[in-house]
Amino acid sequence: MSKEVVVLGAGMVGICTAVHLRKNGYDVTVIDHSTPGAGTSYGNAGVIQREAVEPYAFPRQIQSLIRVGLKRDAAVNYHLSALPSYASPLFKYWKNSEPKSHQAISKDYAALISVALDEHKVLIAEAQAEDLIIKGGMVHAYRTEQALQQGIAHAEHVKQRYGVESEVISPQQFNVLEPNLKANHPIIGAVHWTQPWSVNEPSELVQRYAQLLQDLGGRIIQAEILALQQQPFSWKVCTNTGDFDVAEVVIALGPWSSKFISALGYENPILIKRGYHQHFTDGAIIHRPIFDAERGYVLAPMKRGTRLTTGAEFAHFSAPATPVQLEKTQQAAYDWLDLGQALDEPAWLGGRPCSVDMKPYIGAAPRHKGLWFNFGHGHQGFTLGPASGRLLAEIMIDQVRLLPDEKIFSPQRMMV
Ligand SMILES: Cc1cc2nc3c(=O)[nH]c(=O)nc-3n(C[C@H](O)[C@H](O)[C@H](O)COP(=O)(O)OP(=O)(O)OC[C@H]3O[C@@H](n4cnc5c(N)ncnc54)[C@H](O)[C@@H]3O)c2cc1C
Question: Tell me: the pLDDT tens digits for 385-404?
Answer without folding.
Answer: 999 999 999 999 999 999 99
